[in-house]
């Protein structure tokens, strides 16, 4: 019976998106916390300018631009493409809905991409060059230890370099 207490407690506060632990030890580097992110409570906004237009973005935990753990989601429309790029830190990807297509290398070649269906997980080491696309609407969750960033293999592919 006592074993179910933590689950019952979590369910009792499931409508709360962030819960601080009671009285963390004095001098603790980080406050102990729990985050519960229910789909209806996730605040979606435009994706960062480093990504092609059309995607929506939500930070679930942390700050991906700073040192430390982060979790974020990316909602991409059908036909969304991310040209070949790499990241300065390891990136972990979980497909929440839809299918995410990922290929390795410096050139975009859809025929060489692997389909990651709903529920799939991938881990990419920092510096691994890859590209991605969707065929239908897709949501992925990205997590890692920041700062996160994205560098295009071909600088001309960077949306920030395109004239408006």
Q: Can you offer a commentary on this structure?
A:
With 164 residues, the chain is mainly beta. It folds into 2 domains: 1-37, no CATH class; 42-161, Jelly Rolls. The chain is built from 1 helix and 13 strands, in the order αβββββββββββββ. It has one helix spanning 5-12; strands spanning 18-20, 33-35, 45-46, 56-61, 68-76, 81-86, 91-97, 100-104, 114-116, 121-124, 130-134, 138-146, 151-152. The strands form 3 sheets. It has a 6-stranded antiparallel sheet with strand order 3-4-5-12-7-10, with no helix packed on it. The chain starts with a helix and ends in a 12-residue tail after the last strand. Residues 1-27 have low confidence and may be disordered.
